[in-house]
Amino acid sequence: MTQNDFLWEISKNPVPYPYAFTRMQDIAQNIRAHDARERVWLLEHPPLYTAGTSAKPADLFNPNHYPTYDAGRGGQWTYHGPGQRIAYVMMDLHHPHGSVPERDLRAYVHALEAWVIRTLAQFGLKGEIRDGRVGVWVIDPKTGLEEKIAAIGVRVSRWVSWHGVSINLHPTLADFDGIVPCGIREFGVTSFHKLGLPVTFSQLDAALAENWRAIFGSQPSAFTPIEAE
C-alpha cells in the first residue's frame, strides 16, 4: 500500500443506517476483490439503536421508539444519532497497516482505540481503555466519574473490516438511556460538549485525519463528499 492509497469520505447529512450497512458491505466485498480502495467514511446517523452479536433483548428500552437494526458487528447495544461522529473503517487486514500486522484482529481493535485516544489528546482529553469494557473512557474533572466518550464495534468479513468507531461530540445523551450501552450498567456516557469542549465536526474530523498516519501508516486523502441515495 502506498502512502496515498487510503480514501477518506464524508457525508454532510445524516445517513440512514440501512443505506450505510449495504454500502459498507458492498465496499468490503469490492475491496476483497481488489475493485475498491480501502477507506474511512465519516458520517452521522439519525437517532437509532443497533444490536451487536451479543445484544440482549432485556437491554433495550427504547421509550422514543427509535428504529433498531441488527448490525452483525461485535458487541451489544449501541446508540447512534445526530451530534455523534461515526467513522466506518473498511480495511484489508490481509496486509499490515502501520502498527497492525496482517490478519491480527486484536491488534486492529487496539489500533482503533489508540487512534481515538490520540485524537482526544489533541483536545486535552485523556482517553483510556479498561479490561472487560469496550470503548474509550474519560474521567469528568468536575464529578470524578468515569464515562464512555467513544464506542468501538467492528465486523470482519474474510479479513476485510467494516463498521468502526463512534465519538460523542454533542449527541442527545438522554437517548443513551434507551439501552444499556454495550451491556454496561455501572457507567454513563459523556461527550465533548458535556465536558465543556465546544469542538466542531470539522475540528474533530481534522484531528482524526491528522492522527491516522501515526497509527495506520497511510496518508489520508482529501475528504470526498458522499451523498446517501
UniProtKB/TrEMBL annotation:
Record-annotated BPL/LPL catalytic domain positions: 34-220
Biochemical pathway: Protein modification; protein lipoylation via endogenous pathway; protein N(6)-(lipoyl)lysine from octanoyl-[acyl-carrier-protein]: step 1/2
Active-site annotation: C182
GO molecular function, a single term: lipoyl(octanoyl) transferase activity
Coiled coil: none
Family: Belongs to the LipB family.
Protein name: Octanoyltransferase
Gene: lipB
